[in-house]
Amino acid sequence: MNTPLLMVQIPPKEEATSAVIETEIIAIAVYGKDIDVPLSVSTQRLFDSEKPFRFPTEFTQGAVKTRIVYRYTLAQWHELLEVTTLPTTPPALKQLMIPMLLYMKQNFPDIFGDIEYDREFDPGQYAELFPME
């Protein structure tokens, strides 16, 4: 694993809140043993999930214990992704947040379609994103 894994858990439509913007999305970055967790990522706020996030062993086998958990509503994700995908953002954050933004644009185009990102950042450096149910 050369780039981190980014596992994203979107609740099933029947569990989503009535106000879509308040729907909570959980993303977990998992770093392999060959990757140092960048300081800019490791100092992000950590959350305890009310529901256990299931880590599939086929994705996380051999991964170190470092897992960074992001748990925000869609409104909070919008605010976060606006500022963490800019050209001035540290590369370690863009590595996680640009693929997350692209995923959110695909799933929630009305909410995330207006966010621009650093298109010059090498897509080969993007975290590998795995949608989870």
Condensed summary:
The protein has 133 residues and is an alpha+beta fold. It has helices at residues 39-42, 57-60, 74-84, 91-107, 109-112; strands at 5-9, 24-32, 63-73, 128-132.
Describe, in plain words, how this protein is organized in 3D.
- With 133 residues, the chain is an alpha+beta fold.
- The protein has one domain.
- The chain contains five helices and four strands.
- Strands 3-2-1-4 form a four-stranded mixed sheet.
- About 19% of the residues have low confidence.
In terms of topology, how is this protein built?
Blueprint: E1 5-9, E2 24-32, H1 39-42, H2 57-60, E3 63-73, H3 74-84, H4 91-107, H5 109-112, E4 128-132
Parallel strand pairs: 1-4
Antiparallel strand pairs: 1-2, 2-3
